[in-house]
Amino acid sequence: MNLVPVEGGGHVPMSTSKNPVLGVYRHHCGEIATVHQPKGQKKAHLRYLLCPKCKCDQASGDEYQQLIRENTYRTIEELEAAEAVKLTVNQNEQNQLAETPDTPADAVYKDVDRPESALLNQPLQVVESELTEQPSETPTDVVKPLPEQPTVKPIAQPNTPAANDSDKTKKVAVCAVLGAIVGGLFAIAR
Fold first, then answer.
1. Is the pTM of this model over 0.85?
2. Strand pairing partners for 26?
3. Which of 28, 68, 96, 135 is the most exposed, fewest CB within 10 Å of its CB?
4. What is the pLDDT of residues 27-38, one digit of tens each?
């Protein structure tokens, strides 16, 4: 990765973007990406990343944009220092959780009734005859007969020549024939 020095100390990765580098961000792939802001009014509120592995990341979701803004650092050195602090804080939290037991070691359980808990922890006994028995009779009131289905009446007339003969279809046919004759006469006269 080619690095470029920044005023005030530190370095950023070299970028091929026309837009200036605003800072650096640890991309989800693990690489350090440069953060840029596009020129123009439409997308001036958005940031985009140039990652050496994934190339251009222009995700515009509000949560992702907020994450980029919160975790953008001016230089690579600042980013690595912030990650080191986060790592030590997480390790300290994990160590504290490991040292804290779930129950105190000196807890006294005088109110626990031993015979009752012993009864609860006995294994279950299953009798095979109870599992394999089938009811001898099926109850008749459980199954109800279905009501009779209503008969379906047709809504439309069947598609037969007698059903389709109407005055409108005759008029359309006559107009089509007359139109063809007039069109043929115009073709001949030309």
1. no
2. 32
3. 135
4. 989 899 999 988
